[in-house]
Amino acid sequence: MRCCIRGCVIELRDFAPSDVPSLISWIDGPEALVMWSGSSGFVWPLDESQIRRYADKVGPKLRVWTAVDKTDPDRPIAHASLMVDAPGWSARLGRVVVAPDARGRGIGETLVRAAQRVAFDEIGVHRLSLGVFAQNVTAVRLYERLGFVREGTLREVAAVGGTWWSSFEMAILDHEWRTRPGT
Known about the structure:
GO molecular function: acyltransferase activity
Number of domains: 1
Protein name: GNAT family N-acetyltransferase
Domain N-acetyltransferase: 10-175
Strand order of the largest sheet: 1-2-3-4-5-6-8-7
CATH topology: Aminopeptidase
Largest sheet: 8 strands, mixed
Helix content: 25-40%
Order of helices and strands: EEHHHEEEHEHEEH
Oligomer: single chain
Radius of gyration: 16 Å
CATH class: Alpha Beta
EC number: 2.3.-.-
Number of helices: 6
Strand content: 35-45%
Keywords: Acyltransferase, Transferase
């Protein structure tokens, strides 16, 4: 799938074993690991075996993507996953990360818009949700700009470096997404 936002043309493709080293290199410490994966079972230091176990779960209920720049298709620049519930009514966007040297170029926005299109147009879910740590202000603003609504706060759900982090639960419904400009 090709997507273009603000002049950034990316292609989403299925996550491949060759993407593992890039993904690991973007997660440069325990804080970055929690920011990326929450409490999903990954432990620091992140290694190839953990990523392979995650990738082995890919199927109809879990999609995992790598984003590449159209001009350099061999270099991963972002990653995201989409988990679909059993009845197919809702999906959860997760593990969104953009390569550090690719941030600030609209890639995250392009990636999330592409995931929204897959969730609502291809899969046909009614609700797309996500969790984001409160201190990840850039991501919170992006999700709000793309129509996600804060539904609640999970207070102090992760301990990182001796500090408790809270997270926001956010979601967008299919009819909200369909009536947004540019969808």
